[in-house]
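cron nightly-structures :: item 1 of 1
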Amino acid sequence: MAIKIQKTSDIDDSGVKCVVYGGAGVGKTRLCATAPKPIIISAESGLLSLKDVDCDFIEINKLKDLDDAYKYLKASDEYETICVDSLSEICEVVLAELIPGHKDKRQAYGEMAEAIMPMLKRFRDLKGKNVIFTVKMIQVQDEESGKVTQELFIPGKVLSNQIPYLVDELFKLDVDRKGGQIMNTKPDRSSFSKDRSGALQPIEKPKDGNTEINMTDIINLIKKKTGVK
C-alpha cells in the first residue's frame, strides 16, 4: 500500500462539526435553526419551538430513515448545516425498534451502538457541510463524594463515552440567572466542554442585546480562526 503524506493545513473543506448538549428548555433546537442554511433531522415532537421559523426538517422513525437522510443530504447542495436534534431521542427511537428482536435488552443496546456510531461518523465526515449533534443532559451524583456532574445523556454507556471524542467542538448550552443563553466551550468543575479551534471565549454569550446565541456567529468564528471553508 502506497503511503500518501498530507498536510493538516490543507484541510479546508470539512465544515464545522460539533456536539451541543444541555438540559430541557435551554434552546438547543432553536440554536440549530440559527446555523447557516440548516436542515434538522429530528425524532422529537419538540419542533414546536420553531413554529415561527421557516426551517426544513426530516423526521426519523427508524434506523433506515437516518440512513436515507444521510444519502439524500450527501447528494444535496441545498443545505450548509445538518442538525441531528436530538441524538438522544434518535437513539431511543432506534433502541425501541431493536428491543423486540432480543430476549436480553442489553443485546439491543449493543446493536444500537454498533449501528449508530458508524452512521454518526458518516455524517461527521460529510465534506463542505457543518454538522451539529444536539444531546440531552443528565445530572449525575457520585455516591462517595456527593459531587454532581453534568453529562451527556444517551441510552447505553458505549455511545455516551464515545460521543465526546467524535468531534473537535463540544459545547454545553445553558441559561444564566437572567434567562439569557450561555455556551460553555471549556471544561469547568461540573461539566466537560472543548473548543479545539481556539476561536471561542470560555463562555460565549448572545451578541447585540439578544437573549439567544446565534450559531452562525459561532461557526463563522471557528472558520475564521481555522481557515475551514
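cron nightly-structures :: done
The mean pLDDT is 89.
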